RNA sequence: GUGGGUGUAGCUCAGCUGGUUAGAGCGCCAGAUUGUGGCUCUGGAGGUCGCCGGUUCAAAUCCGGUCAUCCACCCCA
């Protein structure tokens, strides 16, 4: 018999890990709900025609494909097979794949259900996604995304409220973060002013790596993509201007640049007078790769001043995409959304010991019985406790006490109730506090009162 | 896709430049303690050394291949 295993990049979760994960999901969910977002779910499996071409060439490679059922070779592309062209062959033998993110399925959802929802449609979604990436630390092939998006409204009010959601979720989790804000139109404006508008994607890709490779590295990468030294220097000067008012005159000659500045001012105006607990700042060097964002973009990182021990990439990101549903034939629907990186948040909370106490054990009391008769008696007493809303359990057989106590210990149950001949006769049960070791005899009602009080 | 590390008991690992019966800690089981867990002590079970091949009188150890896994890069959460 071979040793059991699970696919690379996937994980099992033990009970205490699931409880901690659920604490994060619940916190995020509660804030989403408070801000008026509604839950939806979409299938894990989507048609590849829905997914392909939406995440760039790299993304397509990382899509998990599902082999067609039945005699898939009968309909296979024989020419591709002959040519050993795996990519082309795959198109003919797999028509489904696992979802890669939650945004594209959401766009599909909006188009398919446009008559059942009203715009603006505010939805949240907490579900796993899959990527055939090579796993490494903090990166998995199966992981959860927690997204909130608004479809069908241009109002910058939503940018402001999504920033508030970031602020509130991390406040509730007890984590200090820095929320960074920028606008793709400002980046586009910079490209125009510097005269490299035709290199916009290359520019954003390079800027995005600033944290990692520094200015030297960014300049090298810009040079490699055919951007001259003069443009590099000018661009660097613009990116160093982290004050909107100072940047505005420098982008005066770019229509896009002016629009970007104006949008950010509007977002700031909405947040005027609002109390935020986290550090929110305009960061002109925030670029967010080459994704589909067109307006405001956000990113959240752990505040290393407050938590100097943490080294972690972004734990959340999002932004505005002017044409959410265009790829599915529905024009004029703008979208804006944010995403929480739950797995990374978990690692950070764990490293900082920020999970609340008492998350790990729900069971309050374990019954320990000594023989057949008391075991049956204990079963009825346990049922009464459960009826009273107290999480109770009974060791499945009246074996040696040592074994049962050991089990209680391993579970981490705070209380044990001992049921033997004496208890059966007197009708009073022996309640033992597993931490202090103290024990005393009580009626069932008294026990219910004690356990309720100790919850 | 590129580069590197690691595969030895259920888990974490030791085993020096090849040399008889492959070890430790934790965990598990039993006992010290037949109505009391955590701590301690005693004993026990548990391993085709990832797999295939090569070198050698001799391979866990050296070499080649293969598979798995982890880490870094690309990209991303």
Report on the structure:
Helices cover 43% and strands 18% of the residues. The protein has helices at 15-34, 48-51, 56-61, 78-82, 86-93, 103-112, 157-173, 184-194, 200-208, 210-224, 229-239, 244-250, 255-271, 342-351, 372-387, 401-411, 421-426, 444-454; strands spanning 38-39, 45-47, 65-66, 96-98, 121-130, 142-151, 177-183, 279-282, 296-302, 316-321, 335-340, 365-369, 392-394, 415-419, 429-433, 439-442. Strands 1-5-6-11-10-9-7-8 form an 8-stranded mixed beta sheet. Strands 13-12-14-15-16 form a 5-stranded mixed beta sheet, sandwiched between helices. The protein binds one RNA strand of 77 nucleotides through helix 3, strand 6, helix 14 and helix 16.
Quick summary:
The chain is of the alpha+beta class and 455 residues long. The protein is built from 18 helices and 16 strands.
* CATH fold descriptor of the largest domain: BirA Bifunctional Protein, domain 2
Query: Roughly what is the average pLDDT, rounded to an integer?
Result: 90
Strand order of the largest sheet: 1-5-6-11-10-9-7-8
Main pleated sheet: 8 strands, mixed
Distance between the termini: 46 Å
* Tally of individual domains: 3
Radius of gyration, rounded? 29 Å
Question: At the first level of CATH, what is the class of the largest domain?
Answer: Alpha Beta
Portion in helices: 40-55%
Residue stretches low in confidence (pLDDT < 50, at least 5 long) are: none
The CATH H-level superfamily of the largest domain is: Bira Bifunctional Protein, Domain 2
> What share of residues are in beta strands?
15-25%
Helix/strand structural class: alpha+beta
Q: At CATH's second level, what is the architecture of the largest domain?
A: 2-Layer Sandwich
Net shape: globular
Helical run tally = 18
Number of DSSP strands? 16
């Amino acid at each position: 018999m071979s040793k059991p295993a699970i696919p690379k990049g996937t994980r099992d979760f033990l009970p205490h890990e699931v409880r901690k994960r659920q604490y994060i999901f619940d916190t995020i969910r509660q804030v989403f709900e408070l801000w008026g977002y509604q839950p939806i779910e979409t299938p894990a499996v989507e048609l590849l025609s829905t997914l392909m071409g939406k995440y760039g060439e790299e993304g397509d490679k990382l899509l998990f494909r599902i082999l067609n059922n039945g005699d898939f070779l009968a309909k296979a592309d024989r020419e591709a097979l002959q040519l050993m062209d795996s990519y082309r062959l795959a198109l003919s033998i797999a028509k489904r794949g696992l979802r890669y993110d939650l945004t594209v399925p959401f766009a599909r959802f909006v188009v398919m259900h446009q008559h059942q929802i009203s715009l603006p449609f505010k939805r949240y979604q907490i579900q796993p996604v899959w990527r055939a990436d090579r796993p490494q630390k903090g990166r998995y092939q199966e992981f959860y995304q927690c997204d909130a998006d608004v479809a069908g409204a241009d109002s910058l009010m939503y940018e402001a409220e999504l920033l508030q959601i970031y602020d509130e979720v991390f406040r509730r989790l007890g984590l200090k973060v820095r929320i960074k804000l920028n606008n793709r139109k400002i980046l586009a404006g910079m490209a125009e002013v510097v005269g490299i508008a035709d290199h916009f994607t290359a520019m954003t890709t390079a800027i995005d790596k600033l944290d990692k490779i520094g200015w030297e590295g960014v300049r090298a990468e810009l040079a490699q993509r055919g951007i001259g030294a003069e443009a590099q220097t000018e661009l660097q000067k613009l990116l160093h201007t982290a004050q909107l008012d100072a940047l505005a005159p420098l982008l005066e000659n770019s229509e896009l640049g002016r629009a970007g500045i104006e949008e950010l001012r509007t977002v700031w105006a909405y947040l005027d007078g609002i109390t935020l607990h986290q550090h929110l700042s305009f960061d002109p060097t925030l670029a967010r790769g080459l994704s589909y964002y067109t307006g405001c973009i956000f990113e959240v990182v752990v505040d290393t001043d407050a938590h100097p021990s943490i080294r972690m990439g972004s734990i959340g990101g999002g932004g505005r995409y002017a044409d959410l549903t265009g790829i599915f034939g529905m024009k004029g629907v703008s979208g804006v959304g944010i995403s929480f990186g739950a797995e990374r948040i978990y690692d950070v909370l764990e490293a900082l010991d920020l999970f609340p106490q008492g998350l790990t054990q729900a069971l309050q009391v374990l019954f320990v019985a000594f023989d057949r008769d008391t075991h049956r008696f204990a079963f009825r007493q346990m049922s009464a406790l459960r009826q009273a809303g107290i999480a109770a359990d009974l060791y499945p057989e009246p074996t040696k006490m040592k074994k049962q106590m050991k089990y209680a210990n391993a579970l981490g149950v705070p209380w044990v109730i001992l049921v033997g001949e004496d208890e059966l006769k007197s009708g009073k049960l022996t309640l033992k506090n597993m931490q202090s070791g103290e024990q005393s005899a009580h009626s069932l009602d008294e026990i219910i009162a004690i356990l309720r009080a100790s919850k």
